[in-house]
Design goal:
This protein is of the alpha/beta class. Among the domains are: 193 residues, ANL, N-terminal domain (Rossmann fold); 68 residues, Roll (Luciferase, domain 3); 172 residues, GMP Synthetase, Chain A, domain 3, CATH 3.30.300.30. The chain contains 21 helices and 28 strands. It has a 5-stranded parallel β-sheet with strand order 4-3-5-6-7, with helices on both faces. Strands 12-13-14-15-16 form a 5-stranded mixed β-sheet. Strands 24-25-26-28-27 form a 5-stranded mixed β-sheet, sandwiched between helices. A hairpin with a 5-residue loop joins β27 and β28. α11 packs parallel to α17. The longest helix has 22 residues. The termini are far apart.
Amino acid sequence: MRTTFPRLLIQHASTRPDAPAMREKEYGIWQTTTWRQMRERVQHIAAGLHQLGLQRGEHLVVIGANRPSLYATMLATQSLGAIPVPLYQDAVAAECVFPINNAEVRFAVVEDQEQVDKMLEIRPQCPQLAHILFDDPRGLRNYDEPGLAGLKEIEAAGAVFCQEHPDFFQEQVELGQPDDVAAMFFTSGTTGNPKGVVHTHFTLLNRAEAGAKFDKLTEKEEVLAYLPPAWIGQNIFSYAQWLCCGYVVNCPESSATVMIDLKEIGPTYYFAPPRIFEGMLTSVMIRMEDAGAIKRKMFHTFMDVARRIGPRLMDGQPVGLGERLLYALGDVLVYGPLRNNLGFSRVRVAYTAGEAIGPDLFTFYRSIGINLKQLYGSTETAVFVCLQPDHEVRADTVGVPCEGVEIKLSDAGEILVRSPGLLKGYYKNPKATAEVLDADGWYHTSDAGFIDASGHLKIIDRVKDVGRLRGGPNDGAMFAPKYVENKLKFFSYIKEAVAFGDGREKVCAMINIDFDAVGNWAERRGLPYAGYTDLAGKPEVYALIQECVEKVNADLSRDQMLSGSQIHRFLILHKELDADDGELTRTNKVRRGYIGEKYAVLVDALYGGKTEQYIETQVKFEDGRTGQISATLRIADAKTFAPMQAAA
């Protein structure tokens, strides 16, 4: 698609001026913005930013949740030839310093008082940050800071400017070209400072269009935008594809109302990482365990039917009349009401990505009639690399290369990608760019995997994380920590897991329980507890988690390549891993190296044969205060299984 984001906006506003472009829930009521209104807002904000001195090629930071105002700001920035840089709204102030200084940012457009306070806090470290514009004025009446102003004021000033210069906006848009830089996304920085991934209008829109063609998306789709705009996945689904297709993007009132808003909107096109689908299923199972005996029996009976018949129906396989009628009855009594309760009654296509999804979890959604599929991509590839075609959906692969994509494997098993959607480069980091983009245009993904006999891509782990066991009976065996961690996280009782084993004789793991799921399990058994730390240390909870670990070991024993990765010892952490404590990235990926250093005393205890270990940990609370959590953690042994021999 050889065009730009602002040109697509103008096109929609010209051809479908009164069609809804976005909806925002405010004070419990959905407010609609039409394409004509969106164009006017973008035009006025662009003129206002121009008057403040925003230059072509300059970066502007956007921080906040999904809001029409912030989407309009990104379009206005692009209309002037400047570059929006979305940052995570839940990042602490210190995390914003590097991106703002690295990109020499003078302008920040933020959502509310919380984000304004962050910008004011870091201003001494970012002296070039001249303008801080806010969307929501609540709590900011008595603020008196240089360069601090409301976005509405800038928009009003821009409206006056546009009356005096009616051709200004169109002239600015016409200056923009498809190969101009359109946006920059900072990676999560698991091993150092984040890197700014530079994308052009062409790279982003080309991939957005490829994804839209693959799933036959039209202007009739409804999307709920609830994930961070700083994450390129959210940006592609509710910004790039929004402008490609012209569908409606709905912004929830707050993170607390997402599930309610999901049911009200009933999206037709939905995206969520596995942890969201896990959370939904956990809440369903908790409610069912609390339901009456008759309802519980009906649910489990028809779910057995669904698991047997549903996936075959979704995959277009032959199903007998009797089974179809039985499934239809289940749809009336269980599956239909369940889809409605989840907000998925109208979903035509649902995607998950970012982490592996458990086969049981995957099968659950497909068995009740939700077309859940997996995709593969990254910030550097503008998301769409592989997609799963309808009727070719499997839990253990991420699909086939989509339009325009070539894939090959290096001698080390690393996945290499060539695509029209590849990054232009890392901002001010030619060395890092050269490490991932070779002279022949291949992007080195750092993922290890292979293409199976049916042409589908299968991911094993990150190349740098794939290690080898050393010493003991499994000397030299492959160790893929992420693969093991994902198998553990497939259980609803386990929220996070960190596996260790590279260069060691056996695999050990640290586990975070899912507080809601395990808490409900404990309450049903009359097991009292006083918070997360107390619950995590209960002998009954250890027995529950040990059962999960041993099921994973039994599963791993059947895998010729990874049977040596069975978990010998484990402990349950006394606190939840948290991005604010540096243990997770802002996209909730485990920072394994950092955790290994921070909890070195626990790692040593796991491998030293200890049965318990005392630890004190500093934690950061939401209000910025710090505190200490201490506990004596029990260390448990898990049963391992002899590797099963492959059939001759």
